[in-house]
Amino acid sequence: MITTFVGSLVILLLIGLPVAFSLGITSMAGFWLLMGSQSLAQAPIIAYKSLDDFVLSSIPLYILLSQILLTGKVGNDLYDVASKWVRHLPAGLGVATILACAAFAAISGSSVATAVTIGMVAIPEMISRGYPKELVLGLVAGGGTLGILIPPSIPMILYGAITGESVGALFIAGVLPGILLTALFILYVVFFAAKKVPAQPPASWDERFAVLRHSSWGLFLPVLIIGGIYTGLFTPTEAAAVGTVYSLFITFFIYKTLTLRDMPAIMLDTTKTSAMVLAIIIGAMLYGFVLTVMQIPQQLTELVTAMNVNRWVVFLAINILLLFLGCILETVSIILITVPILYPLILKLGFDPIWFAVIMVINMELALITPPVGMNLFVIQGISPGTRMTEILKGVLPFGLLMVLTIAIVAWAPWLATWLPKFLQ
Amino acid sequence: MLATAANRIGGFIAGICILATAFIVTYEVVLRALFDAPTEWVNEISVYLILISAFLGFAPALAAGKHINVDLVTCKLSAQTNKYLGVIVSILGLGFSLVFLVTSTEMTLNSYRLNMLSTSTLRVPLFIPQLSLPIGFAMLALQFLANLLNTNSVVLKEEGHQ
Known about the structure:
The structure holds two protein chains of two kinds.
Chain A: H1 2-14, H2 19-35, H3 42-51, H4 58-71, H5 74-86, H6 92-105, H7 111-128, H8 133-144, H9 146-149, H10 154-163, H11 167-173, H12 175-193, H13 205-230, H14 236-254, H15 263-293, H16 296-307, H17 311-328, H18 331-348, H19 353-369, H20 375-383, H21 389-412, H22 415-424
Chain B: H1 2-35, H2 42-63, H3 79-113, H4 127-130, H5 132-161
Helix pairs in contact in B: 1-2, 1-5, 2-5, 3-5
């Protein structure tokens, strides 16, 4: 039964039916077979209820926010500031790219948005200064993944919505691991890439302060969003709304990079992307409902506990599963399909659910850069015409290895994920 | 044609819903922070707006090819095979949308007949946000039908040439 259920999902996925509808159709068949044709009336009720949640309302808002910043070119400012301040360091423009990605990650909940926004300005700049292409592409594809680890984070919102864990606590849990991964990226660039790139002259202090003054409105955005959430001034959902209105204000009236004529395209793009994500949520909720009726999560938990192996072996197996899924699926689907099954197992094994969310999200960063399906690889190829996928893959490999290292470090030192949320509570 | 027009209107309304949510939630934050006067309606209404934007957005996203799929196998197959798979995909999607169209219409009619209200102080008639489901799935069915007719005409044309 379970084999048929999972097998038919895999077949539908492989013939190219979109993930959301593959999940939906398999679930409908499951409803019919398990509970009779009458039960199909339940499906729209579940679909409606899966979105009837203020926490999930933040996802379209974070997508809208990213779209405004992208079209309004706020990413250029972040990169400009970072580059003027650190470009004289060894491989300084590379360091600037990582820092700009980390700063944008503190505004945006999406890695794809981070990679595109920073990549649009950083890639041509570094190429024109004689940086090798592979390094440039790897920097942006890898650095962009910070978007989902450094809060806000759409995957953390999904994890919170499925498990009922506090999204605020999940966000805070990503801060220290996010800083650690940023630092590892920078160390790699400074020590291993510096000999391959030409040094840059330092910017004068006048220039540095001028760019800081000019970009202060944009630089205030991460302070507003993260500060607002941590001081309890507003919830993660409200932060997305406030950030959106603030960025509309600065792009319309301060920077004047947006006009009313840009709005229809921004809104339409936002609608399509957010409908895509929300459709997968509905499909996954239907699928999860059938899994629960079939008692799959309980059976898996019982099976694993009966095997009586060391819980770290199970942990390793989960990571390998996530790595495998990360190669063939994108992150929203992986989280929505696996978390309902893995969460009870994690609790049963005595692991901390907040810590596991961080492990999960770093795995999702890997998923974004592992072929054949790695969203960051696609978008980087999309914004740098004439680039072969192998060039991006070669460049991004060291960053992927650093993510694996970070998973190991956070597994070995769980306080990196759990200390800050407890401290701030 | 019909599908394109429906998507344009639906997509526009959905976009307005998301933008409106950003403004009303900010309004709530400002009222609470500055005047200590939280509203009772913002959270509930924003959930409805996002719901509506999602269901109305499904079809425009499909038309733009935004719904993520796995192209692991399909990218290795011939154009001809992919066209046949495209037909199967559209038929499956059409069937799915029609089942949802029928069942969600029943759900919405039930809420209307029984005058079901939200449990909050607002007491919003539930059929209003629920109406976005039958509308959204009708748009989705139209778009899958349009896709089906498109692939079909391409397949037939190619066979005619041979």
